[in-house]
Amino acid sequence: MMTLLAHVLFCLVLAWDVSPAATALQAFVSSTEKLLMGVAHEMPADKYDFVPTGGEFRGVRSFGKQLKHAAAVQYLVANSILGEPVNAEMSDERGPDAVRSKADVIGYLQGSFEALHRAAATVDERNAFSPIAGVFGSAPATRAGLIAGVVAHSSNHYGQVVEYLRMIGLIPPASR
Question: Which of 119, 122, 144, 147 is nearest to 131 (CA)?
Answer without folding.
Answer: 144
